[in-house]
Amino acid sequence: MNPLDDPMADPFEIAKQAASEIAERTGVPKHDIALTLGSGWGKAADLIGETVATIPAQEITGFSKPALEGHVGTLRSVRLHDGKHALVIGARTHYYEGHGVRRVVHSVRTAAATGATVMILTNGAGGIRETWTPGTPVLISDHINLTANSPLEGATFVDLTDLYSSRLRAIAREADASLDEGVYVQFRGPNYETPAEVQMAKIIGGHIVGMSTALEAIAARQSRMEVLGLSLITNLAAGIQKTPLSHEEVLKAGHDAEPVIGALLANIVGRI
Ligand code: 8IG
Fold first, then answer.
1. How many domains are there within the chain?
2. Which structural domain, as residue segments, surrounds residue 56?
3. Can you give the CATH number for the domain in which 24 is found?
4. What's the gap in Å between 91 CA and the centre of ligand 1?
5. If you measure from the C-alpha of residue 145 to the centroid of ligand 1, how many angstroms do you get, rounded to a whole number?
């Protein structure tokens, strides 16, 4: 049983426990920055620095086995070129897996407990703007959370103004001035949206549709981390793209874009 599933347990204590296991297993007492690598972003881990240790995530308290093919279930400690340490999270638990929000944000809380003050959240997502062809990276400027859930428990009021740090977005644009930005709309999934739902997302101010990042960003802010969000557009959202969406196509677009966006992310990390 996962200790996070005990409603009486304190998720922050479990994250602390996970962080101390990571410190022990990697020999790195403190990490400075953390990255969650979504579909298409995996290559970045090799480009940002030297991997010091790789741990199968399920061996760390609170983490579960990856649910999906194409998702890598590892935690890596990487020494950056400037001597700082990054925790690279290749093991994401999605809300649609149905294990509850605590498990979804455990990696983020663990990252904070390892000492990280910057959280870079990346994902593969659908694009609403027709100019975003598959393979286009987009900065997340804000989000709309349509999961009807939150990782915060009880009367915990957290300010989300500037959730996606304008300082970090400016740094990302120094790395690539052509980066567009947009509002990320998180749906529950795992089904892709109907065309009508995509139109709704557009009308309410969204530009990107996905299934992961908003809940994680909220938890990161609760833990006082600075958040940078990046989406790789792997497909145009349903109805914007005229042909049906296929998971294989989405994985292929991610795979094809990997070298370019990996280099971009490494460039951004080098400037933080
Ligand atoms: I990759 O079109 C990817 N993830 N909700 N919609 C949603 N999530 C996605 C999509 C998409 N593409």
1. 1
2. 3-271
3. 3.40.50.1580
4. 18
5. 14
Helix axes 11-26 and 101-113, enclosed angle (nearest 10) = 50
> What are the tens digits of pLDDT across the range 164-210?
999 999 999 999 999 999 999 999 999 999 999 999 999 999 999 99
Q: Comparing C-alpha atoms, which of 237, 244, 247, 162 is closest to residue 203?
A: 237
| CA separation for the pair 182, 136 (Å, rounded) | 12
10 Å Cβ neighbour count for 52? 14
> Alpha-carbon distance 18 to 12, whole Å?
10
- Cβ(151) – ligand 1 distance below 6 Å: no
Kindly give the number of the ligand 1 atom that is closest to the alpha carbon of 189.
5
CA of 127 to the centre of ligand 1 (A): 8
The SS3 of residue 137 is strand
